[in-house]
Amino acid sequence: MSGDFFDTNVLLHLLSEDAEKADRAERVVRGGGRISVQVLNEAASVMRRRLRMSRRETREFLTLIRSLLDVAPVTLDTHDLGLEFAERYGLSIYDSMIAAAAALSGSARLWSQDMQHGIRIGERLRVENPFR
Predict the structure, then answer these.
(1) Which CATH superfamily is domain 4-128 in?
(2) What is the mean pLDDT of the chain?
(3) Most buried by CB count within 10 Å: which residue of 80, 99, 102, 104?
């Protein structure tokens, strides 16, 4: 399994009308990696509220994602490390929790459009923007 971890925004670009971004998202996701339960929840929320996808469409998409990527749990350790990352790196709480899940899963790269490209978080995690 890849040492990659994916932020919600990268997965949502798989549904984008922007073919270039959708293709790029597909390429990096096909390489394998991990997401957290938080990413699944955030994606479901955006798909239902903003994209107005049906519950069935949302479940089918998330089932596909779960077949492609490992899913890391969100634990108290994730929460504690996420709070530390928020304070140390100035990340939002939601971004810091995703970074914490990535770090705890042993990932070396966190694909994210929203976090600062190139930032190093913790001992070995590096954020990369796949659309840059």
Answers:
(1) 5'-nuclease (3.40.50.1010)
(2) 96
(3) 102
